[in-house]
Specification:
The chain is 30% helix and 17% strand. It is of the alpha/beta class. It folds into 2 domains: 238 residues, Purple Acid Phosphatase, chain A, domain 2, CATH 3.60.21; 57 residues, no CATH class. The strands form 5 sheets. Strands 1, 4, 5, 14, 15 and 16 form a 6-stranded mixed sheet that branches. A 4-stranded mixed sheet has the order 6-7-12-13, with no helix packed on it. Helix 7 crosses helix 9. The protein is globular and about 55 Å long.
Length: 318
Amino acid sequence: MDDCRMYDLIGDIHGHADELVQLLETLGYRKRRGTFRHPERQVIFLGDFIDRGPKIRQVLEIVRPMIKEGCALAVIGNHELNFLAFHTEHPTSPGEFARRHTSKHVGQHRRTMQQLRSDEVVSYLDWFRTLPLFLDLDGVRAVHACWDQRAIDKIAQALIDHGGITTPFLQAAYDERSALFAPVDVVLKGKDAVLPGGQLVRDKDGGWRTEISTRWYLSPQGQTYRTYTLQTDDIDCDQALDEAVIEQADPYPANAQPVFVGHYWLSARRPEVLADNVACLDYSVAKGGLLCAYRWHGERKLNNENFVWVEGVGQDDD
């Protein structure tokens, strides 16, 4: 692995530019010719740059030049793809969009729309279309929420068929009747399991939901809903998993190259790996948590000592 490029992977930022600058500087990046650079290393951003936070424009003004100048790579997050679909009007049904303009969806994008001018919205929408949904590099992988090879393969073929993240791609990705809906949902949001008996669990926004996010990287065999959930809080359900949950599982191979994800709003005083070759870097900076990075040196077995983080400043209202 000595000839691998060395990467610093950074989780969900959600408009927290001050913390991003602090983290980049802690990692040894310095701003030269208008862009944060490192003489030997490169950042991989795991998506979710927009929504929620107070400095969305500033985050984008840091990230996009880094990618343009070759100082960083990035995968798209569900918030960026949602934003694209929210602005993708149906070609034959004026007023209808790939992502419907419900009050919930409008609220999710409210801060981004407030902080960007209309011309900036157009510019960043065009840029979001250029971001990959996953990266499979020499020795390391990156995806926003879940590496499921079956889903990855279907998305890769759909991107070829549709010529990238085009209007037809977005329409298919957000149509529950489409064969593309489930793969995109898995890769950008992870795998869910419906709790038995109508049980409820609080989600990251304080609402109630009937499903849990699962530990998709583990085998479901012998697991209960409590042990298989990927949540900050315990799930009070020791019932064995339904057969349908087991059937949809595709555990990440223990001998596969390390994969890094964001998305899950984890909460901890100190980040830890999820498995020897799986790490989540979303530690809820938008809820006053941590903005987290992992300094990867080419190792196949991840090490808790390689996490680097800064404390979030305050908590967003939404």
